[in-house]
UniProtKB/TrEMBL annotation:
The chain crosses the membrane at residues 69-87, 93-115, 127-152, 158-174. The keyword Lipid biosynthesis does not apply. Keywords: Hydrolase, Membrane, Transmembrane, Transmembrane helix. InterPro entries: Transcription_regulator, YdjM-like. This is Metal-dependent hydrolase. GO terms for molecular function: hydrolase activity.
Amino acid sequence: MDTASHVVMGVGIAGLATLDPVIAENPATMQAVAIGAIIGSQAPDFDTVLKMKNNASYITNHRGATHSIPAVLLWSIVISVVIYLFLPAASLFHLWIWTFLAVAIHVFVDIFNAYGTKALAPIKNKWIAIGSINIFDPFMFILHIAGMLLWLAGMDPGYTFLSIYMILAVYYVWRMKVRNGVIRHARRLHPHATHIFISPTYRWSEFHLVIRTQDYLHVATWKKKSIHYLESYLFEPIPNDPIIEAALEDQNLSAFLSFSPTYRWGIEEYPFGYDVIFTDLRYRSAGYYPFVSVVRLNRDLTITGSYTGWIYDLEKLEYKLQTSRRSKKKKRARLLNAT
């Protein structure tokens, strides 16, 4: 989910925690738990700081190790201990329980969108992306805002958020049922499909689909209880091509391939060399696929620039490639000076 959704969920968990008698009777514990729930609901996404390094590190690691089973335990322990140092009158055990719940719910809800997480790592080191809830779900967000307003108006926060989470449990079951129905329909139309990738939208009745068969990649939408095809491409595995193989050495492209399960690739030739372009087909917006990885090589197949991320205009892409080129030149210069 997005940051705003995790924040309101942290507040919701803090409200729910007032049902715990130990918390209700101890102001210090209540304060500590409220802080722990809000911080815990954000903690798995602290890996966002990797963006400061580069996009490749962020894409490769975001929702990976920080959302794993050991991380859920570690986040809750570290956050609880730090808070307890400032509020020693609080119950450390109850602080840890509710902080743990906040971290665990963060990871749990993230598996339902199209990005997914490595929630079962290290038991299963694979992405789990169910694709039934949008990364920002207006219904869930509005319910939490309503709960917060009722809390401010004097309603009991514990029973208010208990009611909200019971509604959301039913909501999640319903969204899973709808999602599964869409996939069943797609499989009836493509019984030999090898993969079906599904992404929810802001609208409950619409999904984005990529249906992969042995020969084709079909990009489609589910709308008005039927599948509407947008584009179909030949399914072409990555070839043993010297240009492609050179591009595969780039960390930005490696990050893209570690994250994207369905894509198209292409090579564009220029006087200076080549652009190797990989396009993620899951994210289609206004007839355009904005999530790409581009590796630029000269005629000697030396990588001169690369970029992986969201691009909505070619000028921005060219700027990113030129910035990457300057960065690579500086890095090579430092290596030469070091030797």
